[in-house]
Amino acid sequence: MSTxxxxxxxxxxxxxxxxxxxxxxxSPIKLGKCDWRITDFLPTWxxxxxxxxxxxxxxxxxxxxxxxYSEAWLQVQAVGQSLIDMGAKPxxxxxxxxxxxxxxxxxxxxxMSIGVILAPISPNYTLMPGGLARLKDIAETLSPNFVxxxxxxxxSAGRSIPELAAATWISIDGAPETVPFRNLTAQSGSDGFERxxxxxxxxxxxxxxxxxxxxxxxxxxxxxxxWAVT
Length: 230
Hints:
Layout: E1 14-17, E2 23-26, H1 41-48, E3 53-58, E4 64-68, H2 69-85, E5 93-96, H3 102-113, E6 117-120, H4 124-127, H5 132-142, E7 146-149, H6 162-165, E8 168-171, E9 179-180, H7 181-185, H8 191-199, H9 208-212, E10 215-217, E11 227-229
Helix pairs in contact: 1-2, 2-3, 2-8
């Protein structure tokens, strides 16, 4: 556990008192330079602490699978370039049917970096009995261009839905009719990725990530599809 003392901003507050009794509170501390997008942090840390662990997950043997910042950044660039080579463009949609994993994170960062809208969907909708009806509602609303799954075999039921079957599937296990994740990370060039990442237009007054490129499906009333842009 770190014993380093925490540094907090000074406790300063400006108060404007209006004649109608309104109080306007603001901070006199000027906002410094900051990154616009969450994806900007990955190359920054890959450059400053390349060998530090970025993510770790339990392996099948009970040990740990790990990826460093530099490894993750290289994979994100490769996957992003591969998506572009497969025809991905800003405002395309990528549905994530499986749960959290290192590969999930890499694909997510790659998609958001090039302006592809990311839509994480509960794995239970594919894997649990009765869930396909909800998945079908989501797919009809979303019409994804790409689908990511950890196992193409375990999530094959999703292919029974036309809107998902029509998408390009990416899987970790390299199941039939899917693009193996390892093929995406084997990409060596990244010129297209760099152009897409840094020259993607700003919309709604903000740049692509995270506001523009992340859709979360909210749980709620049965039969009602609700989304939040996050």
